[in-house]
Write a structure and sequence with these properties.
Blueprint: H1 3-17, H2 22-38, H3 47-60, H4 64-100, H5 106-110, H6 112-123
Length: 124
Amino acid sequence: MNELHFTYKIKQHLNHGLQLPAGTLKRLEGARQLALAQQKVSEHQSVLAGAGSFVLHQVDNLHLKQVLLALIVVLGITSYTYWYADQSITEIEIIDSALLSDDLPIAAFTDKGFDAWLKSSASQ
């Protein structure tokens, strides 16, 4: 006796022991037919078509809160990057202004001896 035959015998035995009224059996059969009619039939698609369907389905499921949260995160990162760049530029402007307003001529900054003097002054 193979497995399929065995399951068939069990099903027959269970059906024989189940005594339901004829009206209930008809309603159950009608509900089963309705469920089978509404069941989605799987379609064979290529991998790329399946990927496109997946992406399209995910876009449909995005909620407004998720989109707004992503927009706020992007806006925050952009604002921080702009602020950090502005701070760096401001610091460079202050240093440049201090160097240009000093009494030393510009040629002194390119002199190798001046660089050595700065290093020795800084170490003291």
